[in-house]
Amino acid sequence: MKRSLFAATVIAAAITTLTSCKKNNDAPQYARAEAFWSSNAIPTQTFSGNAATGFTITGDKGTKVKFPANAFVDGSGNIVSGNVNVTLKEVLSKKDVLLSGVWTESNGQILESGGELLVEAKLDGKDLKINPALGDKGIQVEVPKVMNNQDMGLFVQGRRDQGQGGGANGGGGQQQQNPTTWMPAPYYPFGNGPNSYSFTLPGFTWVNCDRFYSDPNPKTTVTVLPAFQDNNQVTDLQVILVFKNISTVITFPYNYSIQKFESYQNSLPIGSQASLVLIGKDSDGFIQFGTQSITISANMHIDAPIHKATQAEVDAFLDSIQ
Which of 54, 93, 135, 290 could form a disulfide with 306 if both were Cys (CB 3.0 to 4.6 A apart)? Predict the structure, then answer.
């Protein structure tokens, strides 16, 4: 009798343990915002080389940067020697653009990108500049045509025209202004080779192999209002449009006068297909996320659901971006 009671107790305990484990395994694995952005940040690749003799670096995605001899000067304009530290960021896909936040637009006009990159250099922790005496024989860059194969030109990051808004937080957050945009740099020679874009690096700043997107269809303005599925406050909210058939990813500024996210006026081609993406952070530190496929129509307004999302849900969308 005692053995039977003992066995029953062991079996009951085992069932309870298995049930508990099953419940824990079935619990949604919601994405933590800080961990998500940290793990998906565009990697900073680090190199070093001899400034006096020159050197070449190659990024993980194939970008080549050739530094000639005496390519660097310090803050006072003096040529530097010795080993310098160089960093490189490569943005060579629509997924990279989305995760970097370096959008493909120029003062409200959408751009089609062939790749973005950021090169910076330091000596003993101090920022360096490109030796201006080198001119067109300065730092040579080759960007592989993995993102696009269209004829492009060179754009550099510059100050946004007055009156153009930036990104904004939603759900009670503070406004975030984005004072920079892409500006054409026609004064720099630019090569469209069979496998790569080539140019002389104009400065240690973000540069972009880009062109203004031309579409014969009429243009329109689109507004978006997040439809929150949870009660938590959402901050750092971005409304993003990832185009289906072109290498273009843009964000919608927040228009406080109409209390909606709004595209730049008459900038979006009617009939274009895109993924609308909303991503932010709730007060518990979890990712708030929503996405839907849209076809842009005249004066379109979208009430866009957004909810606390699992890591698998966000990863599945990112993996689907082509």
Answer: 290
Q: Where are the alpha helices (DSSP H) in 117-233?
A: none
Domain extents for the chain?
41-212, 219-320
Considering Cα of 86, then 150, then 145, then 212, what sign does the dihedral take? positive
pLDDT digits (tens, 9 = 90+) for 240-272: 999 999 999 999 999 999 999 999 999 999 999
Q: How far is CA 3 from CA 6, 11, 14, 231, 276, in A?
A: 5, 12, 16, 53, 64
Separation of alpha carbons 85 and 81, rounded Å: 12
DSSP string, 32-62: BHHHHHHHTSPP-EEEEEETTT-EEEE-TTS
| CATH 2.60.40, domain 219-320, yes or no | yes
Backbone phi and psi for residue 19, each to the nearest 5 degrees, phi listed first:
-65, -40
- Report the CATH number of the 41-212 domain: 2.60.220
The per-residue b/e assignment along 59-95, b for 16 or more CB within 10 angstroms, e otherwise, is bebbbebbbeebbbbeeeeeebeeebebbbbbbbbbb
User: Which tokens belong to 24?
Assistant: 């824990």
d(C-alpha 201, C-alpha 134), whole Å: 11
| Residues 160, 163, 165, 171, Cα dihedral to 10° | 160
Q: What are phi and psi of 163, to 5 degrees?
A: 100, -10
- Cα separation, 126 vs 123, in Å, equals 5
Three-class secondary structure of residue 124 per DSSP: coil
pTM here? 0.85
